[in-house]
Amino acid sequence: MDCIFCKIIKGEIPSYTIYEDDIVKVFLDVNPVSNGHTLIVPKKHFTDIKDMDLETLTHIQKTVKELFPQYKEKLSCDGITLCQNNEYGQEVKHYHLHIIPRYENDNLKISTDLDKKDPKEIYEKLK
Question: Among 80, 74, 62, which residue's Cα sits nearest to residue 18?
């Protein structure tokens, strides 16, 4: 299988990993829409939500709940948006949930208007 997320999980491609356990790996998105934009990826390959078991899906949501206070404290974000695409809009065909930190007046624009920081700086704040 030639899945980029499977390669990241195996350590074949480096990532800024924020959290990891037996079920998921959480790392910074390489094309962030906001500072701290993170992906939660199950270690077992699921194409999308249709073929994922409820236990893994529940674990992913639990992980978000546990990480949220860290984002508030370390990044001073005002909230988070969760986004998960299936089929259309899903660039990588390996289930993943986006955690997108939100900042007052950000308008969540996908543009160069945002004051995006170096991913290494964000990594240092979140690890």
Answer: 74
Query: Considering only CA atoms, which of 15, 20, 62, 118 is closest in space to residue 5?
Result: 15
What are the Cα distances from residue 98, in Å, to 1, 36, 67?
23, 10, 13
DSSP state of 35: T
Say how far apart CA 76 and CA 84 lie, in whole Å.
23
What average pLDDT is seen over the chain? 91
4-40 confidence digits (pLDDT tens): 999 999 999 999 999 999 999 999 999 998 999 999 9
pLDDT in tens, 76-90: 999 999 999 999 888
C-beta separation of 10 from 58 below 8 A: no
- From the candidates 37, 59, 96, 98, give the one annotated as an active-site residue: 96
Identify which of 16, 13, 4, 33 has the alpha carbon closest to the alpha carbon of residue 94. Answer: 4
Binned at pLDDT 50, 70 and 90, residue 111 comes out as very low
Residue 96: active-site member: yes
Under DSSP, is residue 77 helix (H, G, I), strand (E, B) or coil? coil
Q: Which helix (H) or strand (E) holds 86?
A: none
